[in-house]
Plasmid recombination protein (Variimorphobacter saccharofermentans), 456 residues
Amino acid sequence: MGNVSYSAHISNGKSAITSKSKLLGVAKHNLRKYKSPEYSSDNILLLRGTEDLYQDVKNVYHQEFDEAVQQYNQKQKRADRRIDDYFEHVANLDQDMAVEIIFQCGDKKFWEEHTDKKEKMYNVYAYLLSTMERLLPNFKVANAVIHFDEASPHMHVVGVPVWEGAKKGLAKKVSKRNVFTPESLSVILQDKLREEAGSCFKFNVKEELAEKKKGRNHDLSVMEYKVAKETEHLEELQRDVVDTDNELFASKLAYRQVQRENEDELREIKQEISEKQSENLKLDYAISYKRDKLEEYEDEISRWEQFKNTLKTLKEYISAYLPLSPLIEEFANCVEHKKDIEAGNSFRGLLNALGQFLRAFKELIVDGMCWFPRLMRWKTSKGEVAPVFSDYRNEGYDYRLKAYMNVVTKEKYSIDSIQEEIKLENRIGTLEQLEQGIVAAEEMVREMEKTRIRER
């Protein structure tokens, strides 16, 4: 096993979402509504929901509880016992009205050494989210977002714990305690999801997660997640800045958070800063801000150079593989026409050209079953899929199409349910498409560099 850290934090204690104001605070942080100078929409990626997290949660309440509330109200003889709006009703109770889970793979030190692999975490967190929804069906996800703008990429998931089976009151209600049981916290959140995350992390990042340590993370319901422990931005201070002992840092952070809000709020914060800081501190802030902007420009230049180097590498990769395009075409035609693939002569123990090519891309699923997701995929109504073949004794001489599998969720589909969509125009990831994409990307880089020069 590797030594890359994995953590899954569930909101609890001070971080518990027990009121509408706390839900608004989570929405403001997760979707960067305060628009700090470090904010970039390219680094805040939504996987579920919209840019209005508060409304996303309300929508889940309506979808899950409206029918149960209507049935409950019909049984009530007294008007004062009826519930008009279940969202407002729960908001006035002393309980969790929503739950937030934060997933993180790798600490600050790891990502400082693997900056070029950060973007791969989109695939890891997207797969982890879909797996969590499958393993915890009673946790209805309202909003999920990935943060790439901090030292370690991580994912915030906000949802509603829905429990059925109450003997009194509503037959269906919000209940964190009944959904996030000790078993689900330990077995699912820390064991099964850790295992699934490790598999996807290894496939995408080519590194292994560390094993779960004994005696650690045994009770996530009372563990406070310390994302800011190894990052420069200190997320916990961003959520609860009024509790920090560092008054100077809090004032500067508050100033940044309200810069883009309305003029009345901006004047109020400026007045507060003016009362709390001297002229020397204001001057110090201005110098610090200019330094930060200079570092941003330097980082921007570095990212552009890395992007151009990546394009160059991709072009060299395509040039190397273009001579193999007939073999790729032969493989794709066999899949689209449901033909068996004859890859060699088992009697002589020889592989033909296609067989040798497939062996280089083959990935074993279970004994006798394999697929080639890196070679060719098809876009379908089920998502991006790749064919699954039977391979007698794993010798690679003959392949027979058995099913299709989603490259992200790993869900399998029968041939009959999806074969009509496996055709030429639905191919993705071909060398021709990559080459066209690189040409377009190079043109975009040239135009954006011209625009950047004019703006400066």
